[in-house]
Design brief:
The structure is a single chain. Among the domains are: 51 residues, no CATH class; 159 residues, no CATH class. The chain is built from 14 helices and 7 strands. The strands form 3 sheets. The protein has a 3-stranded mixed β-sheet with strand order 5-6-7. A two-stranded antiparallel sheet has the order 1-2. A two-stranded antiparallel ribbon has the order 3-4. Helix 5 packs antiparallel against helix 6.
Amino acid sequence: MTLSVLPVSLSSAPAVLIKTARQSGYASVSAFGSVRLRVAVRAALLGSVMVQALCQILPIPAALAANTITDAFRPNAAGATATIDHSVWDQLLKTFVKPSPDGVNRVDYKAFKDSSHAVLKSYVARLEAADPGTLDRPEQFAFWANLYNAKTIDIVLDHYPVASIRDISLESGLFDFLKKSVGAGGPWKAEVVRVKGRALSLDNIEHDILRPVFKDPRVHYAVNCSSYGCPNLMTEAFTGAKLDMQLDAGARAFVNHPRGIRVVDGSLMVSSIYSWFKADFGGDDAGVLAHVRRYAAPPLAAKLDGVTAIGGHDYDWRLNDVQR
């Protein structure tokens, strides 16, 4: 979520910011009640007016007006045989991701930080030095998904111990204060990696590259936000050669787990992922249900028989740490 120029009156600003936060995937944003927050919002809007005025004075290159991140990383080398060596990341995942009897893969962050954080940082640096434009589409997807997940773990380890990734903030200033005030913190907006000379945030990787370039709803089973409510972080690295199989496995594991889909007294409860990103799953409840049925095992499929609408959604932001 970013604060842009908002064509609203000061009196309506809090409601607009709440709506923006909800649409951006931040759960349970309540009304701004304190005088302090109202003053902060007014200051933010005043600042946005100043930015708008500067934009009228200073010419902005046309290239910057377009979604240059998507355009820059859309090209792929169709038919290329080049690959990226993800063996280091693969070994780290096999070592520190612990499948649990309850079906949730948890991460041993303490052991990871104590013994192999430097190894992870070296792997991320090698990915930053690579050129994904030399890869075919499956290898590109694997590249971006592995980079997203590895950098997310790196950020968590930098701040560990934490109870939730939303307790981590890499930004500063007024907007950071506003996000934390409504329980919507997190590292996703900060520029944390650089690929082909371009600084990127985790949100850039997910929402400006993976989602618009690949247009595959299984993206949401690939990227992991270090939370219990998120689809599992796999125990192996993504590779182009195994990508379809890996994405389908991630989809089946999440759809058939209660934190993904559950039917309670005939009412369908789903992960908030299917609400936040409903457009990626067909755009309506029917589209989400069609997607879910594609991966539902027989016990869940039987419960879904006759279900035509989603009753509600939720999400658990607790860190997906091993239980000690």
